[in-house]
Amino acid sequence: MTDQNDQLTEPRPRRIVVVGAGVVGVCCALYLRRDGHHVTLVDRMSPGEGCSFGNAGLLARSSIAPMANPETFSKIPGWLIKSDGPLSIRWSYLPELTPWLLRFVQAGFRNKVDETAKALHTLTDPCVDLYKDLAQQAGRPELVRQSDYLQVYRTEKNFRHAACDFDMRRGFGFQIDEINQADIQTYEPALSNEYTHGYRIADHGYTVDPEALVKALAKMFEKEGGVVKKADVLSFDVNDNKPDKVVTDAGTIACDTVVVAAGAFSKKMASELGTKVPLDTERGYHVTAHDPGIEIKRPIMEGDAKFLVTPMAMGIRFAGTVELGGIIAPPNPKRIENIEDKAKRMFPEIKLTETSSWMGFRPSIPDSLPVIGPSSEMENVYFAFGHQHVGITSGPQTGRIISDYVSDRLSNSGVNAFRCDRF
Ligand SMILES: Cc1cc2nc3c(=O)[nH]c(=O)nc-3n(C[C@H](O)[C@H](O)[C@H](O)COP(=O)(O)OP(=O)(O)OC[C@H]3O[C@@H](n4cnc5c(N)ncnc54)[C@H](O)[C@@H]3O)c2cc1C
Questions:
Q1: CA 181–ligand 1 middle distance (angstroms)
Q2: Is the shortest distance between the CB of 61 and ligand 1 below 6 Å?
Q3: Mind listing the pLDDT tens digit for each residue in 339-349?
Q4: Which of 155, 212, 251, 370 could be disulfide-bonded to 386 (CB atoms 3.0-4.6 Å)?
Q5: What does the alpha-carbon distance between residue 324 and residue 213 come to, in Å, rounded to a whole number?
Q6: Quick check: CB of 284 below 6 Å from ligand 1?
Q7: 382 burial via Cβ count (<10 Å: 0-12, 13-18, 19+)
Q8: Residues 65-93, mean pLDDT to the nearest whole number
Q9: Cα-based distances in Å from 55 to 192, 211, 308, 328
Q10: Measured from the CB, is residue 299 less than 6 Å from ligand 1?
Q11: Among 1.10.3720.10, 3.20.20.70, 3.40.50.460, 3.30.9.10, what is the CATH number of 72-114+143-204+279-364?
Q12: pTM for this one?
């Protein structure tokens, strides 16, 4: 048969550069490689050392309520007044942040909330099964655990306030039970008995080490023939409206397709490739207690202060809160102290003698949806960033969507909500 016929039945493998080796980039690279493409994954750090390093590791199947919603809006003034509240703004960053904030408010109208939840559900729902398979294939099944998780409250007011979110989740088929003080003590005896109300959410999961999980997936990608390159991506050479070289501080990489998966740093890259996106960052913090002297059995969300507590391989990790302050300013040590204070109140017996702390940049789009899909401006350019609070959860599904787009076999119109031309 002729070459022409071969092309009709079997498209030629592409030379693809994926920029960013966080959970999203690694998953894109892996699934693209499994489709037979020549894939180079480029990051200025080793895989899994950006925002994917220090998160709470929850495989948050049911986290489908967008951050921008009427319930959140009613809480924001109270959060901002408190110096140790779950949300803070670096006021010097406000002028730059204002367009993002305006879009955030716009996105919170009720009709958009339902649409957004539906779209997020397509991303988050399959996470536990996908990760169990991937971790097994990577030879590290112990990194992923299936479990329920708890959301606990000291105040009945906040518990009732969350009812709307949980009703929405129930509408998508999630099993959620209300629990009282006695139930909470039975599930997690180390918790303070100040917690009087809560929800138990069934059929979730978590990773005991997000960094190790991303590194294991990257290693599997290499074993399957992919290339991992440590380099800072500086720019792109574009010819005939297609990228044909990625320029890095360690030389150029010839390519015919680029996937931008650089997390909170994707805005400038997308812009260089002709697409403007309203991407900013919600900075988050963690404190890990390495010798906590207590045990917990499952992830727990502190519902009043809005952070997650996860039993991890290296200790108990307290992770969360939102600081709107851009990608330049250094971490604020006060946020770390606040988490430690709250950890002590939550678990009166905890030891915080050996701890480590961290800040990461959640890549966030004001409508709470990531950007996933092809560029509308340039051929052979795809975007996969903006996964805000659920990037670990949605990494594998994002990788599958991108590989479906590249191989032209996408059948799920539900993913149109993520396209970059929605702004
Ligand atoms: C405190 C906290 C708790 C969280 N908890 C959870 C949770 O429990 N569950 C959940 O699902 N999600 C959680 N998240 C969110 C999740 O961590 C992120 O959504 C996810 O890690 C984003 O992944 P990413 O691959 O898009 O970005 P990243 O992991 O940041 O990866 C982007 C990569 O791009 C690279 N890069 C950037 N610019 C360049 C360049 N010019 N050249 C080369 N490389 C470049 C960076 O070095 C980086 O490695 C949490 C986040 C925080 C901050």
A1: 35
A2: no
A3: 999 999 999 99
A4: 370
A5: 28
A6: yes
A7: buried
A8: 83
A9: 24, 9, 9, 19
A10: no
A11: 3.30.9.10
A12: 0.96
